[in-house]
Structures are given as C-alpha cells and as structure tokens.
C-alpha cells in the first residue's frame, strides 16, 4: 500500500529523487488515480508511463480531465477555431502528435487503450466559458486502504519541465497528519467539482471520439506484455540514475552506442594538431556532439572541466545549454543579454580560481557578450585552463571578435562550421585559420557528400525554377548595371570604387530579391507540391518590402504594396490553400512565440513556416521535408545552412525536396551587352544551382536540375566546368 512507501515532499530532476521515481512508486501501489492534466501532450507521457502497467495489474481505475488542446502550441494557434467541436479538434491534434511519439509515449497510450478497452478509465474535456484554458497539473492517488497522495507539478507538466532541471513535483501524503489528510481531501473535492461540471464558468464534455481514436490506434493490448515493456523502461531508468548520480560529464545516455567512429576520429585528429583545429562538418552531422565528445575525453584526463562556448544567437545559447545538460555538465553559466547577473557569476569563478580552488564550469556566451569589456577583463584570469568551442566559427571574422581573439590565451581550441570560409573576406578567413592553427582541408572534415552517402543526412531532390524580371524591373536593373560597368576594371577584374560598387550591387540585389514574377513561380510550386503534401514545408523569403520599382535612384512605394515580402508569400499560401496552417517566423517575434511556432511545426500542427534569415543557423527540426527558396543569394553560407536545415534525418522522412527560385536578369537580346563583370555575377548565381544540383537524386534525370543549369550556362557562354570550381561538397 501507499503508506508502506517513503515518499519525498519534492521530486525534481536536479535532486536525488526524480519525478519518474514518484510516478513509479505511486502507480505501483495504487488502485485509483484522479488526474487533472491540462494540456494532453508528450510533455507528461514520458513521466506518467512509469508504473502505469503495474497500476493496470493492480486493477487500477482512472478519471482524467484535460483541456481541449493537446498542447499549449495548439492553444496559441487554434484558439477560437473549434467552438462546439472540441472532441473533433482533440482527435485531429492527436493524429498529428502521435507521429512524434517515442517508445515510452506509445507505452503510455497502450496502457490507456487497455483501460479504455476494459472500461476502467473515463476521460473528459474541460472548457472555460471565457475562452481561457484550465492548465492545472495535479492528481490524487488512492490505495485499497484509503490512503491518498495529492501531487502537483509546478509550471507545465512538459518534457522540458518534468524531465528538466527547473520544475518539480510536490506531494502531500494523507497518513502523515490530520492537516495532511484535510489538504488531500480538499484537493479531491476540487477535482470532483470540476469533474462534475460544477465549477464556475466551466463546461465538461465526454471525450468519446478521443478515446475511440486511442483504442483504434493501439488495439488489443495485453497487460502482461505492457508490464514486460515497463520493466525494460524501469531497468533503463535505474541504470541511468546510477550513472547520472555522478557529477562527472559523460556521453549522453540517449546515444546507446556512445560516440560514433567519426566523432572519435575527429578527437584524434584534434589531438594530433596540438589540440587546435577546425571541424568543417556539414549541417546536421553533429558538430555539437563531436566537440563535446572531445571535451569529455579531456575531462577524463584533467579531472575538471573549464569550457567556453561561443555562439552567434540567443537561440543557440539555449540549445547548447540543453546539450551540455545531456552530457551531465552541472555548472553552466549563460553569458548573454538574457542573464543580467553573468558578471557576478563570472567574477565568482575568477575569485575562486585565484584562491586555488578547483572550479568546474561551462560558459556559453554569444559573440556579442564575448567582446564586452567586462568579459574581456575577467577572461585572462581563467583562460589558460579552458577549452574553447567556437560554434558557427565564420562569425569570428567580424572586426571586434577578431580583435579579441588576437589576445586569447586559451590553449585548447575547436572551431565548428559547415562553411569556415568567409565569402568575399579572404583576410578574415585566413585569420580564423591562424586562430585555430588550421586551414583547408582542415583538421577534420565531414562534407555533405559523405554525410549523405553514409546515411547521416537525408537524400534530396532539387528543382530549380526560373523567374523573370518584368520591363520596369529590367529597366531599373539595366540602369544600375550601367553604373556598375563604369566602375569595373577589366584588367584587374575588380571594382575601382568598392564602397560605391557595393551600394549599387545592394540596390540591384533588391530588385532580384523582390522580383514580382517570383510570386507567379511560388504559386506554381505550391500547385506542384499540392495541398496534401504541403505539411512540413519551410519557405525562405527575402527581407524587406514588396516593392514597385522606378527607374530613378529612389524607390517608389505604393501604399497598397507597402507590405513585407514574407507577408505577401504568407497571403499567397493562405489564398491557395485556406485549410492549411501557416505562419511567419521572424526576429521580431518574441522567444516564447518562436518556440511555439517551432514546436508546432515539428509536431505537424503547423504545416508551413515562412522565415527570412533567423532559421539559417542552429535551428534543428528534423521533420522538415520541403523547402521553397524564394531568396536567391550569392553567399554560399546561407544556402548551405538552409539546405542543411532540410536534410536532417527523421524516421518518417525518406527524402527532402528543395524548390529554388532563380532570377536571371538578362533576356536573350541583352546577352551581347554583358561585360565580364556581369558574366561573373551570373556565374556566381549558377554556381549555387550547380552546388545544389550536384548531390541531388534527380541531377541526371530528364528535365532534372542539371538540364536547367546547362541551359543557363550555355545561354551566357559559361563553360560547364566553371560552375563546379571550388565546390565544397
């Protein structure tokens, strides 16, 4: 019975007693659970799966109420759209959500299915009349002797909350004292008030369709088989708990086979290069894990860890913190605008180090905070024991960061980048190489071709599509081209006035970016994909306004067209497929909204996500299947990063599909007037197409990517081999 077990007052991931431990003990010794779960998401399944099969064998019964949204993301995106159809909406959301289930999630629903099958569970949907959402996360376990435990989960009962470092479960045992008994009875009465629909401002609906969907998805469950599965889970938990009780960093348990051979190869190569070097690894091949594997090996030698990790964005700060936690790094310091106390925390590390104390820490800093005067003042005091990991290391080429790197005394250094070279900045590229004692082909390289060949990345199809400048755009383009031609030095092969040329090139690039015909091509691509296949689609849009261009230097805007191009693409998508859920993802969105959008896209409740630049670095969404690139760019880094976003592996994704809108500025009758300058610029755009096409599955197919590319090359008198010069696969 429950009273025979020792229950703690609090369970959290950072303490000795974990939430999963509470669920296992409570389920295994109960015959009834009244559960108010709020959002019904994978969030809580992972924890609640522990002990549920034993609860079934005990003859357990359950009352469960939830709100009408599977996830918080559903609430943000769908609120108000499903009045009077709550059960239907729940079924629809569940159908998308179950595609993301892990084995323990499935086990939870297999147990629920058995309870439904044997009429031992009731599920209700609770709706607030004012449009709000009930999101209490609590329950009351009862045993056959009348003992009860009331528990409540702080904040959200989500994977990040329950299994993460910040949230906890608090519980009250009825048998401890009269006060405890009264507290538990009070919460039990509250549950039944809601359950019976007697709470003020709420309505209660039976979740019949939802239960039918669970039963249909996981039919004919065997309780003995469920117990066997659960024993396997529990065995793994006990094993991992024993390992994680140590404060030592280690390779994450989620990688059952430990570090992969190529990750060990990278470590050996780094050692041979004096513990310095660049890991030039294709997007999606595990640069983060590869570098942290090096850090773990060094910890095993040193007996301590002092890490400094530099990243370009706040999103990557959070991502790295999660990876560090998975490697069991306990002391993590966030140095960024999101942590106002970082100076005090860093000073504390410095002072302890000066007193001769051994201090473990992993500092994750943005490049912006790294160049901060206070950070640079404190860094030298602790730098000689550090390992530096510079993520997206091409960012080091910026003037301020380079100045700080010239003063670095950190002996062990790793640079991570899919594209270490800085486009149009040979000096910056060379200096990055000097900082890490490395140069092409680098200490360790894992190119895209190898990653696809070895199955680390997904194979893809590539479809270049052509958009044409209209007469007004072409006149404007020709006007700027004439000015550029006057600045071009044919003998030296460069512009005479670089600053003026860059301004003109930028203005001309805007014409290409905002080419009106792109919208026609975009609509054609949507038709080609079709409404049924549009789910998990990224759209990369150009920055700025959707504009009407004049011939003069000034750009004329009509009030009707004063709208961002990304919004125009969003409108086109909604107009074409009004039943599809799509949204924009921009730097103007706050962090919470962006997290909602990414999670919704990942679990399939959001079909299309449109972005400009903020998905270029660091965002990991393996489920993305299709990409529409409407923003042509001469910067290889951007399209390499964007392609990499789409090639991450997912068990339900066999191929990725990339649609690339290419704007070629000249018409047939203008070819003769092209100077070497113009030809070089066109060749740069076609090289991008060559790069995409070279590894595509359809590169030699009829009407494939190479056929489109060959036609353009011939049109501009560009030799075929020229397009494949310096391509880094």
Question: Can you describe this structure?
Answer:
By secondary structure, the protein is of the alpha/beta class. The protein has three domains: 2-244, Endonuclease Chain A (Endonuclease, Chain A); 261-451, P-loop containing nucleotide triphosphate hydrolases (Rossmann fold, 3-Layer(aba) Sandwich), CATH 3.40.50.300; 458-665, P-loop containing nucleotide triphosphate hydrolases (Rossmann fold). The chain has an eight-stranded mixed sheet, sandwiched between helices. The radius of gyration is 29 Å and the shape is globular. Mean pLDDT is 78; it is low at 71-84, 155-166, 547-562 and 667-674.
SSE layout and pairing:
Elements: E1 10-12, H1 19-28, E2 32-38, H2 42-48, H3 52-57, E3 61-66, H4 72-78, H5 86-97, H6 103-117, E4 121-128, E5 138-142, E6 148-153, H7 159-162, E7 168-173, H8 178-195, E8 202-206, H9 208-217, H10 223-244, H11 261-272, E9 276-281, H12 287-302, E10 306-311, H13 314-326, E11 332-335, H14 342-354, E12 361-366, H15 367-370, H16 373-378, E13 387-390, H17 399-405, E14 412-417, H18 426-435, E15 444-446, H19 448-453, E16 459-467, H20 471-487, E17 488-489, E18 494-495, H21 498-513, H22 517-529, E19 537-540, E20 545-546, E21 563-564, H23 565-576, E22 582-585, H24 591-602, E23 608-611, E24 626-629, H25 636-646, E25 655-663, H26 676-694, H27 705-715
Parallel strand pairs: 2-3, 3-4, 9-14, 9-15, 10-12, 10-13, 11-12, 13-14, 16-25, 19-23, 19-24, 22-23, 24-25
Antiparallel strand pairs: 1-7, 2-5, 4-8, 5-6, 6-7, 17-18, 20-21
Helix pairs in contact: 2-6, 4-24, 5-9, 6-9, 6-10, 11-12, 20-21, 22-23, 26-27
């Amino acid at each position: 019975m429950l009273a025979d077990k020792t229950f703690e007052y609090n369970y959290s991931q950072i303490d000795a007693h974990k939430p999963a431990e509470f669920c296992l003990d409570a389920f295994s010794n109960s015959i009834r659970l009244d559960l108010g779960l709020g959002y019904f998401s994978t969030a809580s399944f992972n924890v609640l799966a522990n002990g549920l099969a034993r609860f079934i064998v005990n003859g357990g019964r359950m009352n469960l109420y939830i709100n009408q949204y599977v996830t918080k993301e559903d609430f943000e995106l769908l609120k108000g759209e499903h009045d009077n159809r709550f059960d239907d909406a729940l079924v629809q959301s569940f159908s998308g959500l179950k595609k993301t289930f892990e084995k323990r999630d499935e086990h939870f629903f297999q147990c629920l299915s058995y309870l439904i099958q044997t009429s031992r569970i009731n599920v209700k949907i609770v709706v607030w009349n004012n449009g709000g959402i009930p999101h209490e996360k609590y329950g009351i376990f009862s045993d056959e002797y009348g003992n009860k435990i009331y528990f409540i989960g702080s904040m959200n009962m989500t994977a990040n909350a329950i299994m993460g470092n910040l949230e906890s479960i608090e519980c009250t045992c009825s048998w401890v004292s009269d006060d405890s008994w009264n507290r538990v009875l009070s919460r039990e009465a509250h549950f039944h008030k809601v359950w019976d629909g007697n709470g003020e401002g709420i309505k209660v609906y039976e979740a019949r369709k939802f239960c039918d969907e669970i039963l249909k998805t996981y039919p004919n469950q065997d309780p003995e088989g469920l117990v066997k599965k659960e024993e396997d889970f529990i065995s793994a938990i006990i094993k991992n708990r024993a390992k994680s009780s140590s404060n030592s960093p280690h390779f994450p348990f989620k990688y059952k086979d430990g570090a992969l051979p190529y990750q060990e190869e990278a470590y050996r190569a780094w050692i041979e290069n004096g513990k310095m070097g660049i890991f030039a690894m294709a997007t999606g091949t595990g640069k983060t894990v590869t570098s942290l594997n090096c850090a773990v090996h060094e910890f095993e030698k040193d007996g301590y860890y002092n890490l400094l990790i530099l990243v370009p964005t706040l999103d990557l700060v959070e991502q790295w913190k999660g990876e560090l936690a998975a490697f069991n790094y306990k002391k993590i310091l966030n140095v960024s605008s999101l942590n106002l106390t970082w100076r005090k925390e860093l000073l504390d590390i410095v002072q302890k180090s000066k007193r001769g104390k051994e201090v473990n820490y992993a500092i994750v800093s943005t490049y912006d905070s790294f160049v901060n005067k206070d950070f640079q003042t404190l860094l030298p005091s602790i730098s000689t024991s550090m390992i530096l990991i510079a993520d997206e290391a091409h960012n080091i080429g910026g003037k301020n960061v380079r100045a700080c790197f010239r003063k670095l005394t950190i002996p062990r250094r790793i640079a991570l980048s899919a594209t270490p070279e800085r486009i149009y900045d040979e000096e910056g590229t060379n200096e990055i190489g000097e900082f890490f004692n490395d140069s092409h082909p680098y200490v360790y390289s894992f190119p895209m071709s190898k990653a696809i060949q070895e199955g680390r990345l997904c194979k893809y199809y590539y479809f270049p599509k052509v958009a044409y400048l209209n007469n007004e755009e072409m006149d404007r383009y020709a006007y700027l081209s004439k000015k550029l031609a006057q600045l071009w030095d044919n003998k030296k092969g460069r512009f005479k006035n670089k600053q003026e040329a860059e301004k003109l090139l930028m203005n001309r690039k805007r014409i290409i970016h905002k080419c009106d015909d792109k919208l026609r091509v975009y609509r054609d691509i949507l038709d080609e994909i079709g409404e049924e296949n549009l789910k998990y689609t990224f759209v990369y849009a150009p920055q700025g306004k959707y504009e009407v261009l004049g011939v003069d230097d000034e750009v004329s805007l009509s009030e009707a067209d004063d709208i961002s191009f990304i919004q125009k693409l969003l409108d086109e998508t909604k107009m074409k497929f009004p039943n599809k859920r799509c949204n924009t993802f921009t730097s103007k969105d706050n962090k919470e909204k962006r997290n909602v959008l990414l999670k919704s896209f990942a679990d399939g409740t959001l079909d299309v996500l449109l972005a400009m630049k903020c998905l270029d670095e660091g965002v990991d969404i393996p489920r993305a299947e299709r990409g529409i690139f409407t923003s042509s760019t001469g910067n290889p880094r951007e399209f390499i990063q964007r392609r990499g976003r789409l090639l991450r592996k997912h068990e339900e994704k066999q191929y990725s599909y990339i649609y690339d809108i290419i704007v070629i500025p000249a018409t047939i009758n203008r070819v003769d007037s092209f100077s070497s300058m113009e030809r070089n610029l066109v060749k740069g755009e076609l090289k991008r197409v060559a790069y995409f096409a070279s590894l595509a599955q359809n590169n030699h197919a009829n009407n494939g990517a190479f056929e489109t590319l060959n036609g353009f090359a011939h049109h501009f008198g560009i030799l075929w081999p020229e397009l494949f010069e310096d391509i880094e696969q």
